[in-house]
Amino acid sequence: MDPAFADPQTARIAAFLAEIGIPVERADLPGRCFVPGIRIECGRLLVDEARMTYPGDLLHEAGHIAVMTPAVRARRSLDISQNMGDEIAAIAWSWAALTHLQLDPEVVFHAGGYRGSSAWFTELFGSGIAPGLPLLQWMGLTFDAPTARVRGALPFPHMRRWLRETPAPAPDEPIDKPADIG
């Protein structure tokens, strides 16, 4: 747990993100943030815990960082790409992260997010339909069920790795140590 955060859920999420390579730092963010109390800055998350509305938003914003190439991750700040592929990949990534952390889906897919589609996303992912999975697989982060079966690996929502690399690993690249963390 990260002692820098008062809320235990925020501390737990921040500790996980730090462990996988996404730094999370306390900050005073008095200006407007796209997501209240959270700002992306050069591959890290700045968090104003007093202004943050939902701790689960950290996982979604981390998903944006995770699906960026390392070069983009190192320089992108403030508002994220308007690319819908990046958005849907970040949504799928956040589902994998909340599953890994054994969080209730409502922590990320809360009533105040996803333009009223939170319940729909929870229903889709909960039934095994994973929008964004093809992108995560293409990025080398996970496998769909048929590929995982052939490779002898675990399928999504299990992650092969948490951060996108450049170039993405080839689908037939030997599987390295799984991304299972703590």
Word description of this protein:
It is a single chain. With 182 residues, the chain is mainly α. It is 38% helix and 6% strand. Helix 2 packs across helix 4. It is globular, with a radius of gyration of 16 Å.
Distance linking N and C termini: 12 Å
The 3D shape can be described as globular
Characterize the biggest β-sheet.
3 strands, mixed
Uncertain parts: none
Number of domains: 1
Name the beta content range. Answer: 5-15%
Strands ordered across the widest β-sheet: 1-3-2
Mean pLDDT: 89
How many distinct beta strands? 3
Helix content: 25-40%
Order of helices and strands: HEEEHHHHHH
Radius of gyration: 16 Å
Total DSSP helices? 7
Oligomeric assembly: single chain
Given helix and strand content, the structural type is mainly alpha
Task: Summarize this entry quickly.
The protein has 182 residues and is mainly alpha-helical. Helix content is 38%, strand content 6%.
List keywords for this structure.
single chain; 3 strands; three-stranded mixed β-sheet
Protein topology:
Layout: H1 8-20, E1 24-26, E2 38-41, E3 44-47, H2 57-67, H3 70-75, H4 84-100, H5 118-126, H6 133-138, H7 145-151
Parallel strand pairs: 1-3
Antiparallel strand pairs: 2-3
